[in-house]
Each structure stands twice: as C-alpha cells, then as structure tokens.
Write the structure tokens for this entry.
Amino acid sequence: MQSLKGHGRWIGSSLKIRDKVVLRSSRSGDIYGIWTMATRWGICSAGKISNDFTVALKTLPPEDHQVVAVAARKVEDAQTFAKKHGISRAYGSYEELARDPDIDVVYVGAIHPYHRSICLLLTNAKKNVLCEKPLAMNSKEVKEMLASAKRNDVFLMEAVWTRFFPASVEIRRLLAQGEVGEVKMVRSEFGVPVKHLPRSMQKELGGGAMLDIGIYCLQFICMVYNGEKPECIQATGVCMETGVDETVVVTMKFSKNRMAVFTCSSGVELPNDAIIVGTKGSIRIPANMWCPTALVVNGKESQYPVPDPSLPLNFLNSTGMRYEAEEVRQCLLKGLKESAVMSHEDSLLLAEVEDEIRKQVGVVYSQDCQ
C-alpha cells in the first residue's frame, strides 16, 4: 500500500499508465487519485556534458527525476561515473542500457558523429531519447532518426538547452506580445578559442565551429523567426588544415525583408551576445547568449539566474539543463512524442540550414558521402 500526501492511507487497486499511477477504489471503482511517478533517466556516455546534465537533474525534485543507470564504452568509466553520482547501475555498452526495462528516457551525451547510431539503437529498443545537439551530422541522418522515433512511437528531442532557459521563455513572450514591434534584424555571436581540443579540430570527431557552437546562434535566429526557413543564405568562412571550419560568418534573409547575421569561431573569443531589433525597440542578450541569465529590454535589464550546482561543472551555467529535462518530463506525462518548443521540424530546419552553410564554406564530413 502507498501513502498519498494529504489523503492518509489508501486501500484499493492501482494501474500504471505511462508515468502515472491511477488509484482506484476497491469498493466503488471510482478513481481516488493520480500519483505521478519519477521520470527514470538513463545516461548514455560518461563524458563531461553527461556529468553536467546529471548534476543539473539534482537541482530538480528527486520525486520527479531519478537517474537509474549510466552506460559508457568502457565499464570502468561507467562505474566511476555511477559512484560519483550515486547511480545504482553501470553498463559497459549502450546495448545494455537500451535493454534496461526500468528506464523511461535516455540522455545521449556522446559526441555528434555517434548520435545517429546510438539514437537508432535506443529508438528501435522503444526508448524515449533526449539527444545532445547537433542531433546529427546532416539532414539525411536527422530524417532517418526522426523516422525511427515515429515508427517506434517514442519521444525524441534535440537537446538545444538554450530554448528552455527562463530568459528564452521571456524572449518568446515579449516577441509574441509585440514588445519591440516587428522584428527586422537579429544578430548573434559565439566564439571561444577551443582549437586545442581534438573534438574541435578533427573531422572524424565532428570538429568545426558550425556544428559545435554555431548551432546556438542559428537556433536563436530560427526561434526569433518562428521556425521560418530563410529565403537566402550567404556563408563564408575560414577552414583549418584538418578540413573543418574555424570561423564562419552567415547572413540570412527572411520574408518581408527581415535579416539575420551570425558569427561563430573556434579560434577567437567574441562578445558572445545577441540582439533582436524591431520597429519599436530591442532585446539584447548579454554574454553568454547560449546560456542566458540576463536580458536588456529597451534599455532595462532583468536577471534570470540558474541554480547553484551540488558538484563541480565542466561548462558555464550547466545547471540550466534542468529546464530541458523538465520539458521532457512534461511531454512524457502528456504522452507527447515531441516538444513544441524544440520540435522535430525545428531540428530538421537546423540541419538543412547547417548543410547549406557547410556546403558554401566547403566542409564535407564522411557522413555526407554515405
């Protein structure tokens, strides 16, 4: 027998539906209440971003989110991760994680060349998935992954965490209310010197500024323009000897003569801010625009802080990943297979625009030739 808060002890029958337990009276058959169970997470890959995501989950109520298993390519790495975060199960293969019946959703924190194969493994195993950005290496892979999720009737979302920050929610509210009038121009920048990292330099690891950090600028522009596909894309950039892009500048034209421009770079530190300019004012997102904690609306600044972590983080403001995790939980409770905030259509648009930008800059991955 379970005890319901505020209802004393309950006697009767229960039926689990998705992540809810429907409590029914044994006498009348009437529904007595609905008990919402915790969303049980599996963590796929035991790297730095998975560490931060797990720390972010700990800022949410334990009765809502629980990490029950972690998997890595080496069982020793999974065991070390599990010990650090108090996780009961550690697997030395992603296949074991996919077979675990006690997992509701898997967070995929592997580097992006592996996203397609891992997500297909999980969706074919009927697992719901939150996969780190970029969802895949190109639009062909994205289409394949979305089709698999639909065929297997599971939830799939690209983990574009920025869209779920309170500051981003406020931006969408302000735009919907016409706070700055008709938007005419959007500018965004993201540049950090990370060429010392192999995953930023090596083509086989998915290196290049566009897919790693430029996606934040692009998704921001697409969010502001409500997922509209640009009428014209002009991109230029500088590539490294390894064949991946170091710095890219992109100009886009949308309907009604609305413009956008963004710059991304793995070679230099940029201001890392963004601005939306309309006919009646502006919204500025100070550094760092990919994990925003402040907005300046028509000259007035407001703060949107994220919670402090319980363990050290690898990346700035990583506890902000709690917001995308809660979005996943709410979608699962409602039986949804995608999020309206970061939809399948949104992910496909990002991939298609990224493909065009890379084509113009001259970056070709092995996945593009398959």
Q: What stands out?
A: Confidence is low (pLDDT under 50) at residues 1-18. Residues 296 and 357 are 30 Å apart (CA to CA). DSSP finds ten helices and 19 strands in the chain. The longest strand covers residues 245-254.
